[in-house]
From TrEMBL:
Every Deacetylase sirtuin-type domain range: 1-246
Taxonomic placement: Bacteria, Pseudomonadati, Thermodesulfobacteriota, Syntrophobacteria, Syntrophobacterales
Domain notes: 2 residues (Tyr-73 and Arg-76) present in a large hydrophobic pocket are probably involved in substrate specificity. They are important for desuccinylation activity, but dispensable for deacetylation activity.
Cofactor note: Binds 1 zinc ion per subunit.
Compartment(s): Cytoplasm
An example Gene Ontology molecular-function term: protein-malonyllysine demalonylase activity
CDD domains membership: SIRT5_Af1_CobB (cd01412)
Protein name: NAD-dependent protein deacylase
Family the entry assigns: Belongs to the sirtuin family. Class III subfamily.
Catalytic activity: N(6)-succinyl-L-lysyl-[protein] + NAD(+) + H2O = 2''-O-succinyl-ADP-D-ribose + nicotinamide + L-lysyl-[protein]; N(6)-acetyl-L-lysyl-[protein] + NAD(+) + H2O = 2''-O-acetyl-ADP-D-ribose + nicotinamide + L-lysyl-[protein]
Gene for this chain: cobB
Positions of NAD(+) binding: 29-48, 107-110, 193-195, 219-221, 237
Superkingdom to which the source organism belongs: Bacteria
PROSITE patterns, alphabetized: SIRTUIN (PS50305)
Amino acid sequence: MTRPDQAAENLLRVKEKVRDASRVVVLTGAGVSAESGVPTFRGAGGLWRQYKATDLATPEAFARDPRLVWEFYNYRREVLAPLEPNAAHRALADLERAKESFVLLTQNIDGLHQAAGSRNVVELHGNIWRVRCSRCGNRKEDRRVPIPYPPVCESCSGMLRPDVVWFGESLDPDVFRLAYQALERCDVMLVIGTSGVVQPAASMGLYAKENGAFVAEINLEPTPYSRALSVSLQGKAGDLVPQVVV
Ligand SMILES: [Zn+2]
């Protein structure tokens, strides 16, 4: 645990770095969404019916039982639909408007950053409010709750799936390239609300630091990367992010 005076000093240091930076990259994870009430569906209490998310959010589950996977995603849509951005989302949207170059990388699929006004968002794991054809790859926004079953592609009649990256799938190569370009070019990076276990996002902070950026982590608790980054701040994103980006 960081001493209180040390914590205040660290906070001030991050605030100054953010203020002086012209090229900023932010990476957000589940911790930011959690403060808006988004459940993770992983770990204890994260069950839907008797299933774990890790058993349903996979290409194998979709091939085996697409109806069941769609029922799970319709349930998730229902949970997400009324949720709203929190103070961290709003502060990051403000920060984007103040910077010459700003890229927001997110592991979250809920669209809350865009709802808060963020524009340059790179969605590492896709977006639950989009569907994608499992045959021809066509994508489109579809915010219906629920999506009627079976959802069928207008161009090829293939089965539509949620446009999200499932367990065992790799990131879209275009998204991957955009993310790494931004990491190589930024002066300051903030890593917010990520547990530091889901790759490649977990190592992105280190990558930016190796490329010369000042990298600060904001998370409820220390992560495996805390000591390797420039500064680690512990606390709620909704409290800390507005303080460092003013
Ligand atoms: Zn299609």
